[in-house]
Amino acid sequence: MIPDAPAPELLVTLDMTGKVADYRRTTELERAERAALDQGTTVWRGQGYTLRVSAVCAVHRQLLACCQPLDGGQGIPAVTAQRKARREYQNRVGTLAP
């Protein structure tokens, strides 16, 4: 072990609502983001699904940052269910240590 080497970041598993996951899959992703989504586990819940994503905190924050259009603006109409789905994921990401 190298004494001055930073500790590797641990993977954090968060549930991403299907509406957010579907949106993210239609946008351009970085390699780490694409890998995190591709390796996610689908959990069916009622009428929709949740994608259980394991990634380092930085990747979760990048995935969240690119979901801002779900709140409306930038030429995209706001859809209440999508806004709520993004907020839920934002709340989950917000619990992660900075």
Structure description:
This protein has 98 residues and is of the alpha+beta class. The protein has one domain. The chain has 4 helices and 3 strands. The protein has helices at residues 18-25, 31-38, 57-65, 80-94; strands at residues 12-17, 41-45, 48-55. It has a 3-stranded antiparallel beta sheet. A hairpin with a 2-residue loop joins strand 2 (41-45) and strand 3. The model has no long low-confidence stretch (mean pLDDT 85).
Mean pLDDT score, rounded?
85
Instruction: Name the structural class.
Output: alpha+beta
| Count of individual beta strands | 3
DSSP helical segment count = 4
Task: Choose one word for the global shape.
Answer: globular
Largest pleated sheet: 3 strands, antiparallel
Measured by DSSP, the beta-strand proportion falls in 15-25%
Q: What is the number of independent domains? A: 1
Order of strands in the sheet with most strands: 1-3-2
Cα-based radius of gyration, to the nearest Å: 15 Å
From N to C, what is the helix and strand string?
A: EHHEEHH
Question: Could you state the oligomeric state of the chains shown?
Answer: single chain
Low-confidence stretches: none
**N- and C-termini, Cα separation:** 25 Å
Amount of helix: 40-55%
Quick description:
By secondary structure, the protein is an alpha+beta fold. It has four helices and three strands, in the order βααββαα.
What tags apply to this protein structure?
single chain, 3-stranded antiparallel beta sheet, globular, alpha+beta, 98 residues
